[in-house]
């Protein structure tokens, strides 16, 4: 009998697999013979986020061509499946696609797209309508080497937020050279002819901290005590909130900048006494 200890089991993986049974546990190729209604019924039973209530869901099946060993070509070999989300409140909006077996970031993307469309979609549509005539009538440049910072032509099939979410993440060094996330999006706002996406990012990055999280707003840590236990004046609280809102941005990148501001502040009458 072997006395070596048994290899540890990956319990987390077992729990995940235990929840995926039947059609949910099948790959796209294994589930291909199933009807779309069967796949949707099995999948919808596991979606609990309220964001899904705003979308009609269907399945798109994608095929590919395959060359057989005998030289014959099969033009429609099963490849993969995608969920197609169509907004119920605005059917004219371009649909959102998500791989059937790739659900890690799907719900978050739907929430982001929905919020973007609620606040910025009409601005984007109006701007595109007003500039389309100018783009058609303008002279095309003969320069075959355009500058690196020239904005790319927007994808007419998808909105700006969908194109951004489906693309590759911005490299960390690019963001760092621009002065951080806020500096990067401010640069995009200046050079992009359709800056709604950049404005969307700037609004979220520059949003002030909540007034109920006094300690967390000032100390960058967990909320340990209630506001009434701090015994601070309204002016002190307002100053802390203002400093925290701009801290680690291009305007106040370091604590030394805050110290210099406080050092140059003239003394108040109460402090002189």
Description:
The protein has helices at residues 11-19, 28-31, 36-44, 106-137, 160-166, 172-177, 181-191, 196-205, 214-219, 234-246, 255-263, 269-272, and strands spanning 55-67, 73-87, 96-99. Helix content is 44%, strand content 12%. Strands 1-2-3 form a three-stranded antiparallel β-sheet, with no helix packed on it. With 273 residues, the protein is α+β, with helices and mostly antiparallel strands.
Secondary-structure map with pairings?
Blueprint: H1 11-19, H2 28-31, H3 36-44, E1 55-67, E2 73-87, E3 96-99, H4 106-137, H5 160-166, H6 172-177, H7 181-191, H8 196-205, H9 214-219, H10 234-246, H11 255-263, H12 269-272
Antiparallel strand pairs: 1-2, 2-3
Helix pairs in contact: 7-8
